[in-house]
From TrEMBL:
Keywords in alphabetical order: ATP-binding, Cytoplasm, Fatty acid metabolism, Ligase, Lipid metabolism, Nucleotide-binding
Enzyme class name: ligase
Pfam family, one: AMP-binding
Designated name of the protein: Long-chain-fatty-acid--CoA ligase ACSBG2
One Gene Ontology molecular-function label: arachidonate-CoA ligase activity
Native organism: Chelonoidis abingdonii
Superkingdom in the source lineage: Eukaryota
GO cellular component terms, semicolon-separated: endoplasmic reticulum; membrane
């Protein structure tokens, strides 16, 4: 029997709490994975040390060398950090905020904070000083750990507004100036070295699996970020050693589960990428490490796809012909295998030798048996592109509130564009399905979060009367039990005529029909028709991450096919290039032909002067579109769409 409390409680009979020291009822099952004995993070780590103590756990690159630590060394470093946190005055159930790129120090600070009785709290490196202040205040941060002087400056700017803050630690580089309670990493790690272990052990012994150990802050695309409280039991992830690369933001649940908790559970070795991984160096790390498992958000896979297309366009006619043949063979064979066929035709085996193996080696994925994507929607075109090269990309689906993945695609359970089936021990309910079987996806299982810290109303909204977690996503199951996401409730566009329209399928279709388009966003809430904001594929400043005016090689090649000489975004926007404008209109018209109703047709569109980016604020840390932010930023252009005449190939609106 589950009891859903109507008010916050410290009772372990309730499924949720919003109190920092709260305890919840664990959702134990009668059998299977859900019936396993609950453990704390310390107990989980101790098991890892017993099983994998001499295995390498972490690998950090210093110059040209990889510096590695075993699981025994990793555990001892976490204990040292915990003792130092206690020495600095970390209070029980208070936060240690960590602000920086992925590193061994990040991991050690994270687990050290938990062992010391605090909360591990990742903070996005893209956060403003004010956003950092909000997270630090909300979690009651006693200590903040920053990567470098750039991140330190953000904290120093708001330090006077953080009365609970006792110390700041910088884990990379020398301090530019000495300040009270500001420490280098080596200074910090030595603080508790002379103290006995008894105080730390007493705190560890007092910890329970149903208490909070980690806070994951939602990206706040529709309001202030919410602190998702995850218990020790939540993060306990439910062989041969895997090699993984850590590069995605560790303040996001997907990265924490794949980089921190799964490796501890299964003894994986984690290699840290360079801080400029998402600006281009990731491919070098992939080739060097040759991981056995790799997770990429959709934009990472799209960037690899764009680069491969750009390189392919410059190859000889014969190479292009062989590649096209191999991709067609690969796609058709893998689609048949996906539906149960086991035979590998001769032409597929030949293509594997001629093309697929070389592509995998060139990408550093020749040892990789598990390529994953998640955290945002991915297009069918991108999935089919990699499938045609015999690189199936498996979709994961979940959220911070479900402690990461709830469903997963696997080699023997895979459907393209589906996010797979429930992980063992997880349950799914489609809430209030329509005639097509589509409704809100709800989760249940031991992975469901404790509640939002200090947010009772939001917690009540999220957790159903019977304990189900409302995801806010719309989806349905096919007859074989595969889950498909059909939209997001808060993203639904409700037209003036009352029709509910999910924007993502339309946006994906336009990007597929018009290869020069980088980002597309449908607008039209409470309006008489749909319109669309479009951006072009352009190069990115590797230092700042900001989009530049130059088109990508792929975009330039597309323009040349149209007879256009455009090489810059500014050559096209404002109606300067009729050939490109006409091609965009033609692509949108093709998408409109397949619309299931007139209300779902895009009537007007505008080309924006720059692409969306994290630096510009239009995209979140995992490259997810921040729709309310974009709508506010481009309000003038959107208003113009609903006052001017309709867009046509003869009269494109692009200014």
């Amino acid at each position: 029997l589950y009891i859903v409390c109507l008010t916050p409680s410290n009772s372990d009979h309730c499924l949720w709490t919003t109190r920092r020291d709260g305890e919840v009822k664990l959702r134990l099952e009668q059998q299977g994975i859900g019936s396993e004995t609950p453990k704390t993070v310390h107990e989980l780590f101790q098991e890892a040390v017993k099983k994998y103590g001499d295995y390498f756990a972490l690998a950090s690159k210093k110059g040209d060398k990889w510096i590695k630590q075993t699981y025994k060394q990793y555990y001892e470093e976490c204990r040292k950090a915990a003792k130092s946190f206690i020495k600095l005055g970390l209070e029980r159930f208070h936060g240690v905020g960590i602000l920086g790129f992925n590193s061994a120090e990040w991991f050690i600070a994270d687990i050290g904070a938990i062992l010391a009785g605090g909360f591990a709290v990742g903070i996005y490196t893209t956060n403003s000083p004010e956003a950092c202040q909000y997270v630090a205040e909300n979690c009651g941060a006693n200590i903040l750990v920053v990567e470098n002087h750039k991140q330190l400056e953000k904290i120093l700017e708001v330090q006077h507004k953080l009365p609970l803050l006792k110390a700041i630690i910088q884990y990379n580089g020398e301090l530019k100036e000495k300040r009270p309670n500001l420490y280098t990493w080596s200074e910090f790690m030595s603080l508790g070295s002379d103290d006995p272990d008894s105080q730390l052990d007493k705190i560890i012994e007092s910890q329970k699996p149903n208490q909070c150990c980690t806070l994951i802050y939602t990206s706040g695309t529709t309001g202030q970020p919410k602190g998702v409280m995850l218990s020790h039991d939540n993060v306990k992830a439910t062989k041969q050693q895997e090699l993984v690369i850590s590069y995605l933001p560790l303040s996001h649940i997907a990265a924490q589960m794949i980089d921190i908790w799964l490796p501890i559970t299964f003894g994986a070795q984690v290699f840290f990428a360079q801080p400029d991984a998402l600006k281009g160096s990731l491919i070098d790390t992939l080739r060097e490490v040759r991981p056995t498992a790799f997770m990429g958000v959709p934009r990472v896979w799209e960037k690899i796809q764009e680069k491969m297309k750009s390189v392919g366009a410059k190859s000889s006619a014969l190479r292009r012909k062989v590649a096209a043949w191999a991709k067609e063979v690969g796609l058709q064979t893998n689609l048949k295998r996906m539906n149960g066929a086991s035979e590998l035709p001769v032409n597929f085996r030949l293509a594997r030798q001629l093309v697929y193996k070389k592509v995998r080696k060139g990408l550093g994925l020749d040892r990789c048996t598990k390529c994953y994507t998640g955290a945002a929607p991915i297009t069918r075109e991108t999935l089919e592109f990699f499938l045609s090269l015999d690189i199936p990309v498996y979709e994961l689906y979940g959220m911070s509130e479900s402690c990461g993945p709830h469903t997963i695609s696997l080699p023997d359970a895979f459907r393209i564009t589906s996010c797979g089936k429930e992980i063992t021990g997880c349950r799914t309910m489609i809430y209030k399905p329509d005639s097509d079987g589509s409704g809100e996806i709800c989760f249940s299982g031991r992975h469901i979060f404790m509640g939002y810290l200090n947010m009772e109303d939001k917690t009540k909204e999220a957790i159903h009367e019977e304990g189900w977690l409302h995801s806010g996503d719309l989806g349905k199951h096919d007859r074989n039990g595969f889950l498909y996401i059909t939209g997001r409730i808060k993203e639904l566009i409700i037209t003036a005529g009352g029709e509910n329209i999910p924007p993502v399928p339309i946006e994906d279709a336009v990007k597929e029909a018009v290869p020069i388009i980088s980002n597309a966003m449908v607008v039209g809430d409470k309006a008489k028709f749909l319109a669309m904001l479009l951006t072009l594929k352009c190069t990115v400043n590797e230092e700042t991450g900001e989009p530049q005016d130059d088109l990508t090689p792929e975009a330039i090649a597309y323009c040349l096919k149209l007879g256009s000489k455009a090489t810059k975004v500014s050559d096209i926007v404002g109606g300067k290039d009729k050939a490109v404008e006409a091609a965009i209109q033609k692509g949108i018209a093709l998408v409109n032909e397949k619309a299931i109703s007139n209300a779902q047709k895009v009537q007007k569109w505008v080309l924006l002067e720059k692409d969306f980016s994290i630096a510009g604020g239009e995209l979140g840390p995992t490259m997810k579109l921040k729709r309310p932010v974009v709508a506010k930023m481009y309000k003038e252009q959107i208003d113009q769409l609903y006052t001017d005449v309709a867009t046509t190939s003869a009269n494109p609106l692009s200014k």
